[in-house]
Amino acid sequence: IFEKCGLVDLSLRLIGVYKKEDKEVIQVALMCLQYVTDKGQCDVNKRKLSNRESDSLLEIMKRYSSDECIVECLLHLLLVWKFVTPDPEVIVELIRMHPNCFEISRLGFQILSNMTAV
């Protein structure tokens, strides 16, 4: 349903446009993407990300690394979508930056264990 109405494309476009300006827009767009992938409404195997879309997500991971909500959404998307293979040190640093957030630790360690399993 959501894929048909373009929510994935719209969310990714919003992230690309507002990545340097509006943290609230990015949070909402990421939460939409997380919701869509959680509900299985977006076939992450069919909907590949363009290089520009992947780069935008990586850029906001760096720019907003201190924002718990944004980091949690990004790690969730990274785990489900595998839009890029990040440097393990980046994931470790995100876990270190948010020592009191169980979900960031859980997602981060899951991503790291997936990397070592390959």
What do these coordinates show?
The model has no long low-confidence stretch (mean pLDDT 85). The relative contact order is 0.13. 69% of the residues lie in helices and 0% in strands. The chain has helices at 7-18, 23-38, 51-63, 68-81, 88-97, 102-117. With 118 residues, the protein is mostly helical. Helix 1 (7-18) crosses helix 3, helix 2 runs parallel beside helix 4 (68-81) and helix 5 runs antiparallel to helix 6.
Provide key terms for this protein.
6 helices; 0% strand; globular; mainly alpha; 69% helix; single chain; 118 residues
| N/C terminus separation | 33 Å
**Main beta sheet:** none
Gyration radius, rounded: 13 Å
Structural classification: mainly alpha
Strand content bin: under 5%
Q: Enumerate the spans where pLDDT stays under 50 for 5 or more consecutive residues.
A: none
Helix content: 55-70%
Oligomer category:
single chain
- Count of beta strands: 0
Task: Write down the overall mean pLDDT.
Answer: 85
Shape: globular
Order of helices and strands: HHHHHH
Tally of contiguous helical segments: 6
Short description:
This protein has 118 residues and is mainly α. The protein is built from six helices and no strands.
List the helices and strands and how they pair.
Layout (H helix, E strand, L loop, with lengths): L6 H12 L4 H16 L12 H13 L4 H14 L6 H10 L4 H16 L1
